[in-house]
Every structure is written in C-alpha cells, then in structure tokens.
Amino acid sequence: MKKQRDHEIHPAEIRELFVNIDPVETWNKVNNTVKSINPDFDMMAVCDVFDDVMCLFDGSFPRYSRILTPYHDLRHTLDVFICTVRLLHGAHLSGTKLNDEEISISLIAALLHDVGYAQKDSEASGSGAQFTQTHVARGVDFMRQHKNNWHLPCAWEAQIAAIMYCTYTPHDLTLVTFPSPRIRFLGQIVGTADLAGQMADRCYLEKLLFLYLEFKEADMGNFQNIQGLLKQTQKFYEVTLGVLDNDFDAAYKYLSYHFESSFGVKENFYLSAIERNIEYLKQIVRLRESEWLSMLKRHGIVQTFQTLSNNANT
Predict the structure, then answer these.
(1) CA nearest 102: which of 116, 118, 115, 85?
(2) Number of H helices, E strands in the chain
(3) pTM value?
(4) 3-class SS at 120?
(5) CATH number of the domain that 74 lies in?
(6) What tens digit of pLDDT does each residue of 86-133 get?
(7) pLDDT digit string, tens, across residues 230-242
(8) Does 5 fall in a domain?
(9) Would you say residue 4 lies in a domain?
C-alpha cells in the first residue's frame, strides 16, 4: 500500500538513505523492511551471519584480524546490505514475489560479499587489499567453513556462493554457475546493490582516494596518481551503467517501487545520487589537477588519505 505523506520530502531525509554507519540502526532498518514483505519472517539466520560479519570488522572474530581495507569498509557492507533489502522489497511490490529462503540467502550474500578481505592472524599483512582479485573466492571459502555455525541448510551453500560471485568485477555472469534462473535473478539484485550502494554514497568521490590506495596495494590499475583514478571514474560510470542495464537486467528499477511505498514518490533516489556524484566529478576534473583534492571536503577523508599515503611510503 502506498504510504501517504502530509509534507514534502526534505533533502535531509534523502541524504539519510545513504548514511549507514551504525550497525544497530542499519539492522533495524533492514529488519523493518523485511517485515513489510513478511511480518512473520524469521531473521535468525541472517542475524547470526550479521553478528559474525560485524566481528570481522571490529576485530573480535576468533583467529582473524580486523578488516582494514579503507574503501571496502564496514560502511560499504552496510550500504550493500540495506540496498539489497530495498531492492528485494521493491521487487516484491512490483509483483515478483519472494519467499523467505530467497530473502535470507540474498541478505546473507550481501553481508558476506567482501569478507574475503579479512585476514587470518597467520597471514595478516597490510590492509587486506592485496586479496582484491581473490576476495570473492576467499569470501565464499569463509562462508563454506562457517555455514554450519550459522545452521544454514546445505542447499544454500551453492546458492549464496553464486550470488556472491555476481559482485566480482568485471561482472561477467557467463562465468557464474547458477543453480537456477531464480538464483541468477537474486545475484543480479545483490550485484546491483553492490554497485549502486557504493556509488550513491555521499562520500563516494572522497572514498575513491581510499580505493586508489587499495589498488596500489594490490598492484592493480596502473594509475600514476589519484588524479588518474578520478579521470577514469567517469569511464567506470559509463561501464557501470551498461552492467546495471544489461548484465543485471536493470534491477535498479525495483528501488522506485520501494521508495514509492516508503516516501509516496516513485523515484529512484540511488540513481539520482549517483548522477549528482558524477556531475560533481565532472566539475572537479575541469579544474587544474592541483585543485582537485581541495574539492573533496567530506569527513576529513583527504587528510586521512594523506596520512595513509605517508605511512605507506615510510
């Protein structure tokens, strides 16, 4: 049922959609959205995985070091988690009904999609970004090793693994073995959440500085400097649009159904936020390169980037 509103949507309400820093608050938002699909939904399996993923990020998971990747951080995982449930809710509202198992495996895959950056105590070195090219496979291995602790049905293993692989760049779904067309659909949902969640972040452009550090540590990208990565981001945006439209069958359209239900306006706030970020990036790259970092002002990320860069060079 469409939610009726007695006031205009305030910009702060829209900004709040992409501020997913607090795990408890994000969990509550996800739980409430799931309950709007099925009030009797049992979140226990998802909760068990959620708790362990939070432990990986705060350093309390046994025999593992805290995840330190500055771009693929806790906020990114929370962004993907909540974007996934919004997509699922929108799909449900559009007429693509989802059962409890499909919701569970999608949310679990979203939570686990980047845990491959976690390092065992015995292999801890750097931030974990050195595992960039293998992090999805490592995450799948982590899931297989711990699935019994979460009491997941055996049949879920292959399904969750296939969905997780949909977040692996370059998003070639012909390389993924899907147990069924339905799992492919759920993979497109989580793959969409991974891309849309990170690019809609209001700090996305600032966090590209952290992505540069990860690429440098992983010896990927061949970027001479951060300016090189920023220049390439416009091209990445164009490629990403192709992935979202073609490989993921424009699954982002389901977000409009979700927001129509929650805000009374059938608008895709994720795509709007991404477009704003890219438009601002275009303004930046028209300036002299020496001025670019001065245009990235949010949350002191430039200063943190400079500190991390200096530490890496000493």
Answers:
(1) 85
(2) 13, 0
(3) 0.95
(4) strand
(5) 1.10.1300
(6) 999 999 999 999 999 999 999 999 999 999 999 999 998 899 999 999
(7) 999 999 999 999 9
(8) no
(9) no
